[in-house]
Structures are given as structure tokens and as C-alpha cells.
């Protein structure tokens, strides 16, 4: 009887151990997504200032500038938990931002403008932070996904409703291309 109780206690402890590991992994993935969300918000906050600065020099590039604003608004409208939708919207926004930054080549005065240079530097810093946040999130999502799919933790994950997290990645190959600017 003691052996049976000891075996049941060991199994219960093992289930608790696996469950706690799954909770930790899920929390790590959610915290990582929060980091991406913060960086995307920082980028979205920089865009209006960048657009206003460029508008002063490149008023006839209105369609490019309006496209960036429109894509920013679409990206902000995607629900925070929709990783795939947010990744797609942010990929398009990143391409459009690349076109705005490339406009500086056509406007030497803009390249020399202190506000533009500072905004460009800030945007570059945010883009680097977004890249690091994406890697961290994808690593946390991978760790959770491995636990959700691996035996025996998949048995506990299924019983307690743990689900895989999607990766934050660019789904469209065209979004990976370097943006081109045509005048």
C-alpha cells in the first residue's frame, strides 16, 4: 500500500513539475510578445514625427508618405494577440519606412536636417530592438511549443489547455525584399 501511495505521489509531483514548466514557458512567451508590442508602439510613435519632417522637404512624395501613415494605422489596429496578423502588417510597414528613409538620398537638405537624422537614428535603434524582441519571442514560443508537443508533457498540456504559440515571422517573401524607391 505504501508503494502504491509513493508511486501516486511521485506521479502527482511529476504532473505538477510538468504543469509548472508549461506555465513558465507560456509566461515567457507572453512576456516576450509584450516586449515586441512595446517596441512596435515605440516605432509607431516615431512615424508621425518622421513623416512631418520629410513632408517639409518632399511635399510631392505625398503618396509614399500617406502610404506609411495608412500602414501604421493598419498595424496599430491589429489586435495585440494576433501574432500572424501583426507580423504581416508590421512587415508592410517596415518596407514603407524603408522607402521613406531612402527618400533622403534624393533630398540632400533632408539628409543634413538634424531632426531627420535624429529620427532616423531613433528609428534604427527601435528596429534593432524589434529584431532582438522578435528573436526572444520566437525562442520563447519555440520552447513552449516543444513542451506542448513533446511526450509526456503533451499529455498534461492537452489536459490543461496549453496551446502552441505562433512565430513572429514574415510570411510573404516579397516583404523580405529590400525596398526600392523610384522617382
TrEMBL record:
Transmembrane segments: none annotated. It is a single-pass membrane protein. It comes from the Bacteria. It is found in: Membrane. Its main location: membrane. GO terms for cellular component: membrane. Keywords: Membrane, Transmembrane, Transmembrane helix. Pfam families: LemA. InterPro entries: LemA-like_dom_sf, MamQ_LemA. Belongs to the LemA family. This is LemA protein.
